[in-house]
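FW: tagging you since you asked about this chain on Friday. Here's the raw sequence from the shared folder, copied in full. Didn't touch anything.
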Amino acid sequence: MQYDPIKRSLGKVFNQTPALRILFYRLLDLLLLRSWYIRRELKKKASQSNTDLTVLDAGSGFGQYDYFMSSLGKKWKITGVDVKEEQIADCNQFFNKIGRGNRVQFEIGDLTKYVKPDTYDLILSVDVMEHILEDELVFENFHKSMKKGGTLLISTPSDQGGSDTHHHHEEDGIHGFIDEHVRDGYNANDIRQKLGKAGFSEIETHYTYGKSGSLSWKLSMKFPILMLNASKLFFIILPFYYILTYPIAFILNIADTASEQKTGTGLMVVAHKNNK
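HL: got it, structure written out here
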């Protein structure tokens, strides 16, 4: 399945005006179950800290989480880093247009080389680590770049069918093709060990996309993308398809987030840097 052509088509449509781009972010937030989990963790972080936070979005993509964070923490200083120049330019232009360019900025960067010692209170990494071979190096860079007491949030496919049944990047088309994955999702113990080795402590892993979440993903993402690949005419039918299927996907998403999943095709990871 090819996602890049769809990504470009969506990009052109939603990039026309800031209002359309905000609508695009809202749609992603509704459709992507992982966004439900990430926004919940970000709200927790916001409620725990009254101070201004310095944030790194490591692999910022379309910038939807930066928009959410800049709405959540009005004094948060956010830096988005990505390897795709086009997306960095689009994001900078959009955030400048909506008057948030002074506190949300984007730059091109390679996470295997990106180190800003003792800079960030929070580092967010959504569906990035499965694309990077030198993951342990990146975890070390995150640890070095983080202030004492800082928090790391990672969303990534798990090894419970993560890369086969849960093609994260087809959900928002940021990363292109399934063969870009360098691993078939993370084993929960494996990622905890790697983060521990990099210096992190209080490492928690939670499965996401259990049975209900995986079914929701098929309804709201997999089937539409298969149909769009078959024919662009499906763009016309898409709104009607979602009117019929989204209420079901919405209930399935609620079910997935309401209880702890014993297993799932996604992993949510929370880790901390010691205060010592």
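FW: The chain has eleven helices and seven strands.
HL: agreed, and The mean pLDDT is 86.
FW: great, closing this out.
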